[in-house]
Amino acid sequence: MMEEKEKKREESPKGKPYERRPAWLRKRVRANSRAQGVEGLLEELGLSTVCDGAHCPNRPECFAKGTATFMILGERCTRNCRFCAVAHGGAGPVRVEEPLAVAAAAARLKLRHVVVTSVTRDDLPDGGAGHFAATIRAIREAVPTAVVEVLTPDFQGDMAAVETVLAAGPDVFNHNVETVPRLYAAVRPQADYRRSLAVLTGAREIARRRGVRLYTKSGLMVGLGESLEEIAQVLADLRAAGCDIVTIGQYLAPSKDHYPVARFVEPTEFDALAAQAKALGFAAVAAGPFVRSSYQAEAVFPGKR
After folding, report:
1. Is 278 helix (H, G, I), strand (E, B) or coil?
2. What is the per-residue pLDDT across 26-58, written as a single tens digit (0 to 9) for each?
3. CA distance 149 to 134
4. What are the DSSP calls for 155-194, one per residue?
5. Quick one: pLDDT at residue 54?
6. How far is residue 266's CA from residue 264's CA, in Å, rounded to a whole number?
7. Residues 78-109: tens digit of each pLDDT
8. What is the CATH number for 136?
9. Residue 204 to residue 59: CA distance in whole angstroms
């Protein structure tokens, strides 16, 4: 009986085996009526979340707290990063009513901090930037006091697309570097480390030119085989790019077919990474085994509206 329980605990919802995880990476949160309400609302409005799409381990906790990270522009990504559980392949048409649906969900959930991300849409002329902008404006209309945070793809380095997003007035512009440059070819071959840094730098420059306060944010995973020296260089690069907020979390392989976990980073090591990042001057740092780019985003946000 104990062996059966252990086997079930190591299987994903799709039946594919996970790697055996240490005690600090086991989280149990009981579902409650609030979580069921979030699920029902998302289904009613036809909305997707990165919580589901990326098999986020924090999903039960966040849903139970009545929050979620909205994922726009469909459920299929035009890229195929080896760390990500989001489906890839031919993307479908953009739902023109999606921005209003996201805004309605944010209002009904009474969110004070709304996080919107997307799949990467390299098939669209603007990479989906206009859809991001429409979603930001809809949220501003429905929940004018909320902080709006967007987690965008790199738009293939198109700064006009970044400017389109920023013109809608988000409070936080997030773009993740995800890992160290050496691992890009194996982990995210369709992305480019320097391009991602340029997107963050460009966003900062656009905001400065427009005379608006914008917090830039990025995140990376650890446990893919990077060295401490490489992590230190990424943190330094992000600060040089003007990044205000950084998140650092443990990489967990969504299935045996994804990029394997090289090691599990202990909580004390995350504490050391957080101290290192703070010493570099980041305005806010979140580092820990379960930290994800949008996890507890409201608590990490250093500013106030």
Report:
1. helix
2. 777 666 778 888 889 999 999 988 777 667 777
3. 14
4. GGG-HHHHHHHHHT--SEEE---BS-GGGHHHH-TT--HH
5. 65
6. 6
7. 998 888 878 888 778 899 999 999 999 999 99
8. 3.20.20.70
9. 31
What angle is formed at CA 12 by the lines to CA 10 and CA 14, rounded to 5 degrees? 140
Asked if residue 197 belongs to a domain, the reply is yes
- 198 token code pair: 């340029």
DSSP 8-state symbol, 23: G
Tokens of 31: 């579902």
Q: Considering its fold, how many domains does the chain have in total? A: 1
**What is the rounded CA–CA span in Å between residue 23 and residue 1?**
20
| Bridging pattern class, strands 70-72 and 48-49 | antiparallel
The residue to which tokens 């998140």 are assigned: 247
Structure tokens at 53: 């799409």
User: In angstroms, how far is the first alpha carbon of the chain from the final one?
Assistant: 53
At 65 the pLDDT is: 83
State which residues form the domain around 93.
24-218
Burial code (b: 16+ CB inside 10 Å, e: under 16) for 250-268 equals bbbbbeeebbebeebbeee
Chain-centroid distance of CA 278 in Å reads 21
284 is a domain residue: no
How many angstroms separate the CA atoms of 148 and 139, rounded?
A: 8
3-state helix, strand, coil in the chain (%, to 5): 40, 15, 45
Instruction: Flag residues of the chain having pLDDT under 50.
Output: 1-17
Give this prediction's pTM: 0.90
DSSP state of 91: -
